[in-house]
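Please, structure for the following, as tokens.
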Amino acid sequence: MTTAESLEIVATTRTTARRGFARASLTSVRDAHDLFVAGRVDGSYLESVPLPRLVTESWQRSLATGVDPDRGPGEAAAARHLTELRSSHPLAGALPVIRRLLVDHATDSGVLVGVTAADGALLWVEGDSGAGRKAAAMNFVPGADWSERAVGTNAPGTALALDREVQISGSEHFCRLVRPWSCTAVPIHDPLTGTPLGSLDLTGGVEVASAQTLALVRATAVAVEHFIALEYPRGSRPEAEAGPRLTVLGANRPVLHIADGGHAHRLSGRHAEILALLLRHPEGLSADHLAMLLDENDLDVVTIRAEMSRLRRIVGDELIGSRPYRLLKHVRSDMGDVFSALRAGDIATAMDHYSGQLLPRSAAPAVGRLRLELSSSLRGAVLVSGDLHLLRRWLDLPEARDDREGWQGLYDHPGVGAIMQSEARGHLIALDSDLA
């Protein structure tokens, strides 16, 4: 099937069901949203509404961060600033790919193609001119901030917030102004580092929230990432970002990105633990010491040597030396980025790099101590900063759900609004009840 045929299906299909619940429930979704944003029901009520959990959790984040459901995004960036953003953005070079696969066939389909930066700023909006004029009424225009923290639940912003593909239809949007629209968005990542570069979005009528559209946008995002990877050998890759990079934060499977050829090795839990510990011990570790750090009781030296042999076959002998085991090249990591930003006093950047706990499934004692060190250091910096936005971001993390001091700090903060203060009070009551 050609791209044009796929978009024709998108433009003509009038599906009445998606993700397991009927579109006939549209009124109940709208009513649930109105009750929720008015404070007449809480998050537990939303569980009885036929909504994906992704949507209800996004509504709760949107309300907690003070998004106004009756307003869209603020004014778009000035033309000069937008030009600077576009010219320096890594996705600028991939625009011909996006236009050929999506935009060229969307001009008469009632569909718009949006490309955002990693912070949710819309960089390009192209496609059907009539749809573009209508979308401008809700400020879906280049330069506008469509992040979830600015507009609430929406496909491009929520896709970036969760770092996963997202479809939002009609009244699932948090802002009422966006209810006439549906959208499908897929994040685009740096193929070498895995860092989010932005999102690719298709916006239109209810038919846009379909399986065909998701497959089309997903395929285009993959094509864009492949294009960017091919461009790197031509010298377009910044030197500062060259070299291996380890991703060990958050719930996703750990990955080691090798700069040469842009290859990515998905790691087992044990291999990720070893690499994380070698990062924190540049002097190297003996097999005995590594065994003790990974398991104080049951791990023997023979097992460690076997694991190291397997790991070196995967990543190469040129990366890991022996006697003692040590890294032979500088390896960057998301963990290291957080520690470096904290040392520099840049808490906002530390939060940007912190996608979740260090190897949360690991039971290795040394990894557990390192996990606690990283989390506690970031938490302490956020609490002493007095920054309401950073505190809110910290409390949105799963590990902060039981952080009573943090929630009390939010409740007492002089800049907190009534809705956010009410949420903090409810959370404190629930915590006190659990700990009673």
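Residues 104 and 127 are 7 Å apart (CA to CA). Residues 1-25, 233-240 have pLDDT under 50 and may be disordered.
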